[in-house]
């Protein structure tokens, strides 16, 4: 191929392993979107194939208040868990992210460039399950937001409420606990820890 031509993937890359983390992590990252604010079905990437699969219909009326997906080449392992008091382990998934966009983005399975502004520390049955909060890069409304404290309080409350209740079964004990909301500085540490966890996991797998 002539050097003047751009390189391209002959086959679709796996969104977890084949996409770049972002242009300038830990604060400027790519988000691969699994669920939009218009979905009443919980979709999740199939780890073997990289295609989106139906995880479950939402049991309640909860809808995600923002785009919801994950940061490529991240993994919630022991380093990520160490930043979440009470966690015995990470949840073993890529790092979750919610992206706020003023213009509706109605499609999933898209790459959304995002800037980290904070996060929500979630403990799910003893596992660290952080939800990073970000804004769409270049957004005409939210682009000046630098920290989660700059977002409307009601929007942050809705994100907390969604993750507090999206697995709720009426009559059953609540297994998920929102421990705190944190700002951009701590969110950057969580992203860095998850990138280190991913690198360690990749190294272990390469030795098998």
Write structural notes for this entry.
The chain contains three helices and ten strands; from the N terminus they run ββββαβββββαβα. By secondary structure, the protein is an alpha+beta fold. It has a single domain, classed as Inorganic Pyrophosphatase. Strands 1-4-6-9-7 form a five-stranded mixed beta barrel. A two-stranded antiparallel ribbon has the order 2-3. The radius of gyration is 17 Å and the shape is globular.
Helix share of residues?
10-25%
CATH architecture: Alpha-Beta Complex
CATH C-level class is Alpha Beta
- Ranges where pLDDT stays below 50 over 5 or more residues in a row are none
List how many beta strands DSSP finds. 10
| Secondary-structure element pattern, one letter each | EEEEHEEEEEHEH
Largest sheet: 5 strands, mixed, barrel
Shape: globular
CATH fold call: Inorganic Pyrophosphatase
Helical segment count:
3
- What is the count of distinct domains? 1
Strand and helix layout:
Blueprint: E1 28-35, E2 41-45, E3 52-57, E4 67-70, H1 78-81, E5 89-90, E6 96-100, E7 111-124, E8 127-128, E9 131-136, H2 153-165, E10 176-183, H3 184-206
Parallel strand pairs: 5-8, 6-9
Antiparallel strand pairs: 1-4, 1-7, 2-3, 4-6, 7-8, 7-9, 7-10
Care to give the gist of this entry?
The chain has one domain: Inorganic pyrophosphatase (Inorganic Pyrophosphatase, Alpha-Beta Complex), CATH 3.90.80.10. The longest helix has 23 residues, at 184-206.
């Amino acid at each position: 191929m002539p050097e003047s031509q751009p390189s391209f993937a002959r086959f679709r890359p796996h969104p977890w392993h084949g996409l770049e983390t972002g242009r300038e992590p830990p604060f400027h990252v790519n988000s691969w979107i699994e669920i939009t604010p218009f979905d009443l079905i919980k979709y999740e990437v199939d780890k073997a194939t990289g295609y989106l699969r139906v995880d479950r219909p939402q049991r309640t009326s909860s809808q995600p208040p923002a785009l919801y997906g994950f940061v490529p080449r991240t993994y919630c392992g022991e380093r990520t868990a160490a930043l979440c008091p009470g966690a015995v382990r990470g949840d073993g998934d890529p790092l979750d992210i919610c992206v706020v966009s003023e213009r509706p983005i109605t499609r999933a399975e898209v790459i959304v460039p995002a800037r980290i502004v904070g996060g929500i520390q979630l403990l799910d049955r003893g596992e660290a399950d952080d939800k990073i909060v970000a804004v769409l890069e270049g957004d005409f409304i939210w682009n000046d937001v630098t920290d989660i404290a700059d977002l409307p309080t009601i929007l942050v409350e809705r994100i907390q409420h969604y993750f507090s209740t999206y697995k709720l079964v009426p009559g059953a004990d609540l297994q998920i606990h929102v421990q705190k909301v944190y700002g951009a500085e701590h969110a950057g540490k969580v992203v860095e820890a998850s990138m280190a966890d991913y690198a360690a996991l990749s190294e272990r797998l390469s030795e098998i």
